[in-house]
Amino acid sequence: MSSPSRESIAAQFLSTYGRAPAVVARAPGRVEFIGNHTDYNGGAVLGAAIDRYVWVAAAPNAQGRLRLFSVGGKSVLELPSDPGARITGPDSWANYPLGVWRSLKDFGLPQPASFDLLVDSDLPPGAGLSSSAALELATALALLKLAGKADLPADRLAALGRHAENQYVGVPCGILDQGTSAFGQAGHLVHIDCRGPAFARVPFPANAHLWIFNTREKHALIDGFYATRNQECLDAAKALGVAFLADLTPAQLAAKIGALSPALAKRAKHIVEEHARVRDTVEALRRGDLAAVGRLLTASHRSSQHLFENSTPALDLLVDLLAAHPAVLGARLTGGGFGGAVMALTKDNFTAADAAGIARVHRAAHGREPEMIHLQAADGAMLLG
Ligand code: ADP
Ligand code: MG
Questions:
Q1: For the whole prediction, is pTM greater than 0.85?
Q2: Is 129 exposed, middle or buried (0-12, 13-18, 19+ CB in 10 A)?
Q3: Domain identity same for 305 and 184
Q4: Are 52 and 176 in a shared domain?
């Protein structure tokens, strides 16, 4: 996938709509660094905004219409006005920008009456890197600028993108994706206390690298697995007499765990210990102890594998191979699980050839090569002018 630039986006806009854009905005994708299924359990999560982005260029439309185009798509979608109902079929991606446009009104923010909009991206959609939140945030900044408002606090921007996805796309996502894309800063991770939500930036050393190994496998029953885990966590919290599992320390849980069935005990132990690992990771990052961060990441994976049971043999093999590599600090499944991707934290001397070697072993065992992406912690959503 080639990387777009401010100039290439403006050229695409010109060839699509016959004039220059009035504004270009950009928002990054993200990886879940640590904090697995902690968000809906009242816990914390650490995200990394990454140097892969969605760009949105826009200009007012003189005919009062809404026109939308995504580079690589077949044709411009042209709407006389707000379509109201959710769009289905090949143009359904337009629900994201249209949802953002409607959300501006819901948030009492100015809304441009009409627009021509163009999207370009080097973020693979559906790879667990949150292209959807990046599209929402870049759209929000571009449309707000068209309406004469050049700035929005990052927490409002994140809430607006999440509202658009929840209400107008119909995906019940938490705040990790939009919060990380809004608050990202080069050389930092984003800490989110999902209860507030409250956001903070945590320094991330320049000599540490992120690698994604995307298996591209997705379990057919994935929605059912999510719903089951969600319900198990609610049931465990209720049986333990707390509002959220993250209300308990590991010691408090150990004292009460006999009240739970074996399955619920495993789920609760994962969430409570994972929430503690997020805190320990922040502390290790603050002291610059990357070896400790790496151990916490791999411990998070082992907990997903054995306690939360949301891993797969393909993800486990990748983590085993990575964890045994001398230039890798730690590795874990990232995102919901039941397929998807593994993230590795590596030292400077982990090379593309090392990654390719791991991919070869994975292909021999599981039939296909994972998609490999080398990433750095990047700046959050911004206007490019
Ligand atoms: P993820 O956010 O993990 O990438 P999602 O399923 O949440 O996966 O969001 C992917 C969807 O976002 C795509 O199916 C598409 O509708 C929309 N999207 C993402 N990137 C683009 C793009 N460059 N152009 C148009 N739509 C996009
Ligand atoms: Mg998404």
A1: yes
A2: buried
A3: no
A4: yes
